[in-house]
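Bug report

Summary: structure tokens for AA9 family lytic polysaccharide monooxygenase differ between web form and batch submission.
Environment: batch mode, default settings.
Steps: 1) Submit the sequence below via batch. 2) Compare with the web form result.

Sequence submitted:
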Amino acid sequence: MSTGPSGSASDPLIDLSSKDMACNVGGTKGVQRVVAVDDGAVLSFKFQSYPDDASKMSYDPGHQGPCAVYLKKVDSAIKDEGAGDGWFKIFAEGYDASTSQWCNQKLIDNKGRLSIRLPKGLQGGDYLIRPELVTLHAANEGEPQFYTSCAQAYIKSSGNLVPESTVSIPGEFKHTDESLTWNIYDGMDNAKYPLPGPKVAKLVAGSSTSSTGQTEGLLPKECIAVKGDWCGKQVPSYTDETSCWKSSEDCYAQADTCYANKIATGNKPCESWSKQLCEVIQADCRAGKSGPPKVDLLPKLEKIDNGLVFEAQNEGASTSPSNQENKPAEEVKPSASATPAAAQSTPEPTPAVEKEAVVAEDNSKPAEDPKPDMVISAPPATTPSPTTVICPPGFQCVTKHTTAVVTKVKYETVYPKQKRQSLHHRRHMHSL
């Protein structure tokens, strides 16, 4: 995934003809993990402005617009580049007149989570799962902004449901679409907002599947630490000073590889590896001890509260969120000693998920959080939190943005007698 001036997965996607529209910047290349999810499982996608600090703002409240979730059935979630035909929509919501909220605002209220229950009875096998947020604060100036990413998943199902038709991404969205030129500041009736992209897919019976089980994307048994595609393995044992220092060299060589594997959520797994293993081995060498110490730095699965869960829709179905009691999903949450790489805002761009950011109800070892691991490296806690901007009635509001070299993207929204400014530290990451 790119982390240079040309763009990163935390930046909004503006070129609607780019392959990045499918799975974000760098998303044509899959990661080496695929998460297994049950038929009809609840998936929870976490969006946050600071990928390596979930305690900060999840999503800029100035970002108003619709949400959607797409699926693509593929032969290999790792090898498929995402871009192209095969995508079908299972959920979409724009403006909810009953609550006077855009879907993105509901996501903020839900602690940055877009939680969706998969349709039950889909054909089993490999899928790319693509959450999508669209922000409209600059749409009237010809610049709608997309935030997306792809999760690599294996759906454990013996069902036979398939979409009646599919669409191509890129190719489905045009700058002239009414949904992407909608002026949210000009007194338009948002309840009449037309959703971007295709209609929610109609699922029909296809051939039944008799899956033999997941065969790729599994976490190797010898891994004792992970970060993106990096897998830390136990170092050789040692009984004397010579073998101890060789083991230390092996440990730090693996640490170098870890740091070289750049993901959006930063280097905390590498720091834990160095501190809890490599430094301990060096201390053993000086003290004449045998080893190595036994450590397990893999991220631990913890139960999470999905909050608001949207039900997958069939063509013409309701967009109402689920009122049923939802079984908590399992999420890889950083422990005090190790933080896994996590995937896809103005004034603060919201991180995208690299083919990898999905949280599922599953008991297997987690795939890195997704083709991004919503994964990213965040800067200091001194960045001011943006405030909600409301365009005064009767005024035409203009949104401008400039990109600060490599590390920051600066967005400014200018109004008569009023100016708002916010900084977003570039992140990048990650993976589903």
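Above is the batch result. After comparison, the two runs are identical; trailing whitespace caused the diff. The first helix runs from residue 20 to 23. The chain has two domains: 20-213+300-425, 229-262+267-287.
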